[in-house]
Specification:
The structure holds two protein chains of two kinds.
Chain A (H helix, E strand, L loop, with lengths): L1 H18 L7 H22 L8 H31 L5 E5 L6 H13 L3 E6 L5 E5 L14 H5 L2 H9 L1
Antiparallel strand pairs in A: 1-3, 2-3
Helix pairs in contact in A: 1-2, 3-6, 4-6
Chain B lengths: L1 H25 L3 H32 L5 H32 L17
Helix pairs in contact in B: 1-2, 2-3
The chains are: A mainly alpha, B mainly alpha.
Chain lengths: 166, 115
């Protein structure tokens, strides 16, 4: 029940934002918004809210703290890819990393962060939540030992994902 | 002043989108092409969206009330791009690997034989 109410309110706020055109909303817009958010709430409450981890405000503070670092890494990634586009120097490979994350939220955050940051692209995830990462420029020191050190692939992102989503 | 900021942001966005298209042509296989196709297009689109948001907020501040919806819609487009672009790339890479496309010139392939 709580999931349904939260989803409906979220959809209604989105509706209000989308239909805002600098003036106060008309009564017909608001009624249409309530009806549509109720339909969306019934349809998607089970998918949208699976557990209540993200209801904790501390996790939102961690997300806010994570964003600047994420954008910095993303800018670095873009100059790296731009360099490789121009020079054509690549040394690709698929490496397996074990970030030891359990929840779906944290593994999603980690996979998306890996895809958007320097030289790495997540390809697959197996049942034990090990990530398989396509790496455009494999460093030699990561190849020596078999349980690969995730620090060289994605720096401290697993720690951030653990703080946000575990 | 604001026009200059908007032009700079548009310029950065277009340069990165251009690099992404060059990367799509130059790289040898589907995985490396996805590298170019996700990172650079996301970064470029962020700057294009930021330019539109600044333009919308500026015109709204000048008294053109409807322009606020331009800024809000671009902001949500930005969030949608940030969330869906890596997810889509992930799906394409996984599908490519499962249908038997091997990375070209790979020095290591931990996923081999894991299906």
């Amino acid at each position: 029940m709580f999931a349904f109410i939260a989803t409906t309110i979220f959809c209604f706020i989105l509706w209000l934002l989308f239909t805002f055109n600098g003036d106060i909303w008309g009564i017909d817009e608001i009624i249409a918004g309530i009806i549509l958010s109720l339909i969306a709430g019934v349809a998607s409450a089970k998918i949208f809210i699976k557990d209540y981890k993200l209801a904790n405000p501390v996790r939102w503070l961690f997300i806010l703290a994570y964003l600047p670092r994420f954008f910095y890494e993303m800018a670095k990634a873009n100059f790296d890819v731009a360099y490789r586009v121009i020079t054509g120097k690549i040394k690709p490979g698929i490496v397996k990393i074990s970030p030891n994350l359990k929840s779906d939220i944290s593994i999603t955050i980690l996979a998306n962060s890996i895809t958007l940051t320097p030289g790495t692209l997540s390809v697959d995830v197996d049942d034990e939540k090990n990530l398989y990462v396509h790496w455009i420029n494999v460093k030699d020191e990561a190849l020596r030992k078999m349980p690969r050190d995730y620090k060289s692939v994605c720096s401290t992102f697993p720690d951030w994902a653990r703080r946000i989503g575990e | 002043m604001i026009w200059e900021i908007i032009y700079i942001f548009l310029g950065i966005g277009i340069v990165f989108n251009l690099l992404a298209s060059i990367g799509l042509m130059r790289f040898p296989d589907v995985y490396t092409r996805l590298h170019a196709g996700t990172k650079c297009t996301t970064f470029g689109s962020i700057f294009v969206c930021l330019a539109v948001i600044i333009y919308g907020l500026w015109k709204w501040y000048d008294g053109n009330k409807e322009m606020i919806s331009l800024a809000i819609h671009s902001f949500f487009a930005l969030i949608a791009i940030l969330l869906t672009n890596p997810t889509g790339a992930h799906a394409i890479a996984r599908a490519a690997y499962r249908s038997g496309v091997k990375p070209v010139n790979a020095v290591v392939d931990d996923l081999e034989g894991k299906k």
